[in-house]
Amino acid sequence: MNQFYCGRCKIVFEGEEARCKCGKKRLKPPVVNDIMFLTFRIHGPTSGMLEDLLEQHEIPFMRQESRGGVPGAAFGKSSHFDYFVPFGAYAKAKELDEIVPR
Ligand SMILES: [Zn+2]
Questions:
Q1: CB-based contacts of 77: which residues, under 8 Å, 6+ apart?
Q2: Which of 16, 25, 26, 46 is most deeply packed, by most CB within 10 A?
Q3: Domains in the chain, please, with CATH?
Q4: Dist. CA 10 → ligand 1 center (Å)
Q5: What is the pLDDT of residue 66?
Q6: Average of pLDDT values for 61-88?
Q7: Among 18, 31, 36, which Cα is nearest to 94's?
Q8: Helix (H) or strand (E) holding 49
């Protein structure tokens, strides 16, 4: 099994073939600076807690308004953030994400 990084989905997966479920081909193994999707969070205290923890551990992150629609949310207005971190910090960032309540 090899590891591949898909820059379109921002994920790493294991497989025999360098081809992601999204159809993207000719993928390469991940390198430390590849941007990974970490998690998504509702705007609010827990998203702030996660950001504080990432900063305390000196993990650089990117935050984007989530494009996914959320039932009940006002149309056209996102109430979620998507978070991204570099592959090199992903394992640690994932641990932090898991200790912050949803
Ligand atoms: Zn993909």
A1: none
A2: 46
A3: 1-30 (no CATH), 32-102 (3.30.70.790)
A4: 7
A5: 80
A6: 77
A7: 36
A8: helix 45-56
**Ligand 1 centroid distance, CA of 8 (Å):** 5
Distance 56 CA to ligand 1 centre (A): 31
CA of 87 to the centre of ligand 1 (A): 15
Entry field: residues in the chain: 102
43 C-alpha vs ligand 1 centroid, how far in Å?
Answer: 26
The pLDDT score that the predictor gives to residue 43 is: 87
Residue 21 CA to ligand 1 centre (angstroms):
6
- How many C-beta neighbours within 10 Å does residue 68 have? 9
